Amino acid sequence: MEKKQPKIEINEKYCKGCRICVEFCPTKVFEMRGFVASVKNPEACIACMQCELRCPDFAVTVTL
Amino acid sequence: MGFDYEKYIRPGKLPHIWCPGCGHGIVMKGLIRAIDALALDRDMTAIVSGIGCASRLPGYLDFCTLHTTHGRGVAFATGIKMAKPGMNVICVGGDGDGVAIGGNHFIHACRRNIDMTYLIMNNHIYGMTGGQFSPTTPFGARASTTPYGNPDPPFDIARLAIGAGATFVARGTAFHASQIDKLLVEAIRHKGFSVVEILDSCPTTFGRKNKFKSVIEMMNHLKEIAVPVAAADKMSAEQLQGKVLTGVLHREDKPEYVEEYGRLVERVRESMEG
Amino acid sequence: MSNKVAFLQGNEACAHGAIYAGCRFFAGYPITPSTEVAEVLSNELPRVGGAFIQMEDEIAAMAAVIGASLTGMKALTATSGPGFSLKQENIGYACITEVPCVIINVMRGGPSTGMPTGPSQSDVMQAKWGTHGDHPAICLVPASVQELFTETVRAFNLAEKYRTPVTVMPDEIVGHMRERIVFPEPGELEVINRTLPSVGPGEYKPYDTRFGDVPPLASFGSGYRFHVTGLNKAEDGFPTTRADLVQAEEERQVRKVEKAIDDIVTYEEYLLDDAEIAVVAFGAISRSARFAVNEARKRGIRAGLFRIITYWPFPERQIRALGQRVKAIITPEMNLGMTIHEVRRCVEGRAPVSGIFRVDGEPINPAQILAGIQEVR
Ligand SMILES: Cc1ncc(C[n+]2csc(CCOP(=O)(O)OP(=O)(O)O)c2C)c(N)n1
Ligand code: SF4
Ligand code: SF4
Ligand code: SF4
Ligand SMILES: [Mg+2]
């Protein structure tokens, strides 16, 4: 069975650019683009959900 | 689908007022997940706070919410619970709010063992007023009113709660986000006064003054100092130096205040009929 | 059918008045000379299915009262001087959030610990200006045990009707004296309950001025979810710093009481019709004053008494009219001059106003007031 790719979204209206998602994603899925985070390597995601849990600003959503 | 937080947030209230990297947002998400897991009736749930950055939390959530005066949240909450025992009452606030100006209400709520949950977001500082030291600021740390280092020894909120009689006491951190809701679920389910302390980050005032280059270092610090209670058993006193225990630290069964008062009322009314 | 008659202390009558008014929640902290209110209610509230809680201090007691009232319950606290000072911040909170509640402050000597068992009337200014910021104030000053009962009922009525805290302030003499009281039958005195929303939860706003200057207040736990904050707020209850909204809300909160002055203000005029000298007094001292006025009349002096029952809002119009009618006004009070300033403000120099002030823990006696009347004659 093929592994389904999680969908990772960043709500730029809510992101305050704290970098928590960027630094603590175990597979380095995110990068900073200017003052907001953005998804760089979605295919590396292992769906640990930590980014969604830790974003203080309700800006990251991971859909499995 | 990711977790739908906005279901519980009042329309148009996001983005919230907290600074970039402020842990209060992480804690609020944990509270929302806990409420969701317990499927609490929103109409019958009051969320009460004092004053401070942490105390702004209730305004975001679609429940019966009460943002009161500095330190007094627990006392307002006590009135609600006594007058309407059927309500779920959750009180939230910061370290300054809870154990400085509100310390007296806090210990007495613990003593009464009144059925409510008190969530303390402990960022070790008075965030809202610009970073003055609080009763949990570490000895020697810098704050805007301790320019030469903090001369005051800090409180251990969890131990204070246990000593005062709280019947459920837990501690977590903003870094260990997935644990926050689990602790809160247990706390809210517990009959009696439950205290959940979440070690939190205030990068804007505490971080800046204490050489944390960013919230990332603060989060790493929380990661390093946290030791789950179960793991602590196998560690030596040396290994536990500078560490903080996390998880459920205390749990006991004792008569709950509102229920006891209800029994008293019944007793009195029966004797009137007799 | 005849009414129940009893011989009660003022504070006891106050507690029974609260029960009559529908009060079902009390939170307090013991302090002389108000403690009997708490003691009686700790006994009575469980009997009517209500709740009594002794809190850790007066700040907590005031907070708990506001919390309880937000669930729809009529709630009371009772205190004296030092405790009244401690309550002030949360009284302001009840003002801005417009949560009905009643505070009994049995006045003792001050400042600070002062004279705990001595009578005083020196908290009347604090009742209006005690908490910071602009806010409405309603304060009632009964003069007998019976009146302490009925004014406590009226305090609840005004609190519920105008969505605001109301203070009842007997001096220690009135709080502690024992007199005959006739208990009103249920239904004999009017009992008012707050207006609940007529719109559904979806449409409800806690400060919705479409319903006038006193918007309906929903109860927590009744299906309405709303936010309550001590920050300046808009009609929807959420904080705002928008200048026009803040100004409008603040003005409305003060206006709702000011414009209802004729509904709120009560007073008693005694032998004032032809009076040349008016004594303006309240509480226990109004009893001395009545005696002194009678004595003066016996001596051929046309004296009369204006007894203040509602201290705030102050009976401005009536005192102004009095200033136009009489030759002199005397204000005997158990403080160093508080009412005298209000009276002077109202009479605007039309009549000389002199005071008799006493803060030694002794009431001002009729002889002193009679001497005052003879002096200004
Ligand atoms: C009676 C009173 N004293 C002082 C203040 C000022 N004040 C507002 S918030 C605050 C401290 C808040 O600190 P904390 O509770 O730790 O919350 P944080 O902002 O850190 O989340 C203080 C001292 C106040 N609002 N009221
Ligand atoms: S954690 Fe959230 S707020 Fe912080 S950078 Fe990532 S998306 Fe933005
Ligand atoms: S779910 Fe885990 S692996 Fe995937 S992006 Fe988020 S933090 Fe990285
Ligand atoms: S000042 Fe500190 S506590 Fe307040 S919002 Fe900013 S980071 Fe959070
Ligand atoms: Mg703090």
Describe the model.
The complex is a heterotrimer of chains A (64), B (274) and C (377). Chain A is of the alpha+beta class. Chain A has one domain (7-63): Alpha-Beta Plaits (2-Layer Sandwich), CATH 3.30.70.20. Helices cover 16% and strands 25% of the residues of chain A. Chain A contains 2 helices and 4 strands, in the order βαββαβ. Chain A has a two-stranded antiparallel sheet. A two-stranded antiparallel ribbon of chain A has the order 2-3. In chain A, a hairpin with a 2-residue loop joins β2 (30-33) and β3. In chain B, α1 crosses α6 (177-189), α3 (95-101) packs across α4 and α4 packs across α5 (157-164). The longest helix of chain B is centred in the last third of the chain and has 17 residues, at 257-273. Chain B is 38% helix and 17% strand. With 274 residues, chain B is an alpha/beta fold. Chain B has helices at residues 24-38, 73-83, 95-101, 103-112, 157-164, 177-189, 203-209, 215-225, 229-232, 257-273, and strands at 45-49, 64-67, 88-94, 116-122, 168-173, 193-199, 226-228, 244-251. Chain B has an 8-stranded mixed beta sheet, sandwiched between helices. Chain B has a single domain (21-273), classed as Rossmann fold, CATH 3.40.50. Chain C has a 7-stranded mixed beta sheet, sandwiched between helices. Chain C is of the alpha/beta class and 377 residues long. In chain C, α4 (81-97) links the parallel β4 and β5. Chain C folds into 3 domains: 5-182, Rossmann fold (3-Layer(aba) Sandwich), CATH 3.40.50; 209-262, no CATH class; 269-376, Rossmann fold, CATH 3.40.50. The mean pLDDT of chain C is 98. Chain C is globular. The longest helix of chain C is centred in the middle third of the chain and has 18 residues, at 145-162. Chains in contact: A-B, B-C. The interface between B and C is large, with 38 and 43 residues. β2 of chain B pairs parallel with β11 of chain C. Bound molecules: thiamine diphosphate (TPP), iron/sulfur cluster (3 copies) and magnesium ion.
